[in-house]
Amino acid sequence: MKASVLIVDDETRMLELLSMILKPEFSVTVTSCGREALRLSRSNSFDLCLLDIMMPGMEGRELLRQLRKEQTDLPVIFLSARSDLEDRVEGLELGADDYITKPFEPMELVARIHTVLRRTRKRSQKQEGLAKGLQIDWARREVWYDGEEIKLTPIEFHLLRTLAQHPKQAFSREQLLEKVWGFDYYGDARTVDTHIKNLRTKLRQAGLQEEVIQTVWGFGYKWGAM
């Protein structure tokens, strides 16, 4: 299966060029809008994001900050015409996995993408066990119990990740709405309860007896695996 790459750039011609270069080796999704990219990242399991910095609206650095704030472990490569050392250092310190300047050589771009993918996949090969028999591969967004995969929706996985990566920390329903659904979601906080119920059901049906998602009465939820 081809690795999936999200390309974010406000220049149509650049999107077309990048698509042409990458489509032979990757599954490609493109957008010219930072906010649309954030929405796509919440609802899809991309393997990597190729991100321009200078864009109208939500520019690349702000998009990366938002991704990292939401605990998204999506590998990100900045692709920018800004080539000063200070810009490259800032991009890497913000949490980018690599920084490539325009203009670029197509073969080098493809090679750098493969390098980041190998590095992040190697990092995730040791799937974290968060309860006896439960394993989560953050990069591939897969959850397993006793060797059997548990099929989760993107929202369910994002909920699980938010809680599991902060063990013992209690999250209010409003905090989970903001982290998982985003700032612009105006649904009822009971939406969280419905998805937590579905997530718990899938974990129990898979055979996990430990109540890893605990209710904090009158507040919200926390990860309580021992």
Automatic annotation (TrEMBL):
GO terms (BP aspect): regulation of DNA-templated transcription
Principal cellular location given in the protein's record: cytoplasm
GO cellular component, one term: protein-DNA complex
UniProt keyword annotations, A-Z: DNA-binding, Phosphoprotein, Transcription, Transcription regulation, Two-component regulatory system
Name of the protein in question: Two-component system, OmpR family, response regulator ResD
UniProt keyword Nucleotidyltransferase present: no
Modified residues (4-aspartylphosphate): D52
Domain Response regulatory: 4-117
SUPFAM superfamilies: CheY-like
Pfam families assigned: Response_reg (PF00072), Trans_reg_C (PF00486)
Gene3D superfamilies xrefs: 3.40.50.2300, 6.10.250.690, Winged helix-like DNA-binding domain superfamily/Winged helix DNA-binding domain
Cell compartments where the protein resides: Cytoplasm
Domain of life of the source: Bacteria
Residue ranges flagged as DNA-binding region: 126-225
One Gene Ontology term of the molecular function aspect: phosphorelay response regulator activity
